[in-house]
Write a structure and sequence with these properties.
By secondary structure, the protein is an alpha/beta fold. It is built from 15 helices and four strands. The longest helix has 19 residues. The protein starts with a helix and ends in a 17-residue tail after the last helix.
């Protein structure tokens, strides 16, 4: 990314398309992981896989708070220790793999190792890719400063655009097809009934759920509460810190709403986004989507 950023815009766009084309050709071949990038990739008992901005931070906060309340302790300020101890890995897998530097790409460092994909319980954490894309735009433009163009520009980006998100989700659907160790958790369902959906996650992952700890965790990790904690600097991990307190779109916990993508996209972009959405595998259960190929 830094090297591409120094090129003139036209050259940068050409280089990005060329790079994405090479990655697309190699992606189906590289399914190994010779040097895991994250702790727990080879030992996790539960793996939560998602593209960015699908509610992963929310689920992580729920899990850490639940585990702490069950032990009679306050929610921790760091989330990773809880996940390692419980054997839970949160991974972007194919999506992060597609955006990794070439050495990491060829080593497969971001991919969940095959033995874990086959032996662990897998939760696909999904969100309407159009809403996820809008949140990702603000993440990359306001927080990480990886992208400086407009939202419509990024919509068609070969690595960070909507088509890539749909391709990655469809890849997981094909990979997990028929698995008896798979559960689907959708952001929209968690948003509508967090207590019921989080209970389902706990029962799938660990076999049971403590009612009191669950209720307290849901209260602790409500959207408003998490946004307040972020503003106060409660969490110690850098990914959970506010970048610009004066910019509401720069928060990690941004809006927490469903179906808002049309508020941000042009009419042309909305039409394009719908075509991409229609390609989404029916495994994810979104009305209207069904693996339809664009004409």
């Amino acid at each position: 990314m830094p090297r591409l950023a120094r090129l003139p815009s036209a050259s940068r766009r050409w280089a990005a398309r060329f790079d994405a084309s090479l990655r697309s050709r190699a992606e189906g071949l590289v399914r190994w992981n010779l040097a895991p990038m994250y702790d727990g990739m080879r030992s996790a008992r539960v793996i939560v896989i998602s593209t960015p901005k699908c509610g992963r931070t929310w689920l992580r906060a729920l899990l850490s708070a639940y585990d702490a309340y069950r032990a009679g302790a306050p929610p921790p300020r760091r989330l990773e220790a809880t996940e390692r101890r419980l054997g839970v890995l949160f991974s972007h897998d194919r999506w992060e793999h597609a955006a990794a530097p070439w050495p990491s790409f060829m080593l497969g460092r971001c991919l969940v190792p095959r033995d874990r994909r086959e032996g662990a319980k897998v939760v696909l954490l999904a969100r309407d890719p159009r809403d996820a894309f809008v949140s990702l735009y603000f993440e990359l433009s306001r927080r990480q400063r990886w992208f400086s163009g407009t939202m419509d520009d990024m919509l068609r980006h070969p690595t960070f655009g909507l088509s890539r998100i749909v391709d990655v989700m469809n890849g997981w659907a094909a990979e997990c097809n028929g698995s008896q160790r798979l559960a689907l958790l959708r952001y929209e369902d968690l948003h509508e009934d967090p207590e019921t959906r989080f209970r389902g996650f706990l029962e799938f992952a660990f076999g049971s759920a403590d009612r009191e700890a669950l209720e307290r965790a849901v209260q602790f990790a409500s959207f408003g509460r998490l946004r307040q904690l972020e503003a106060e600097g409660y969490f110690e991990e850098s990914a959970m810190r506010t970048v610009n307190p004066g910019d509401p779109d720069s928060y990690k916990v941004r809006r927490g709403e469903v179906g808002t993508h049309e508020e941000y996209l042009s009419k042309e972009a909305i039409a394009y986004a719908r075509c991409e959405f229609l390609r989404l595998d029916p495994l994810f259960g979104y009305a209207g989507a069904g693996g339809v190929k664009p004409t």
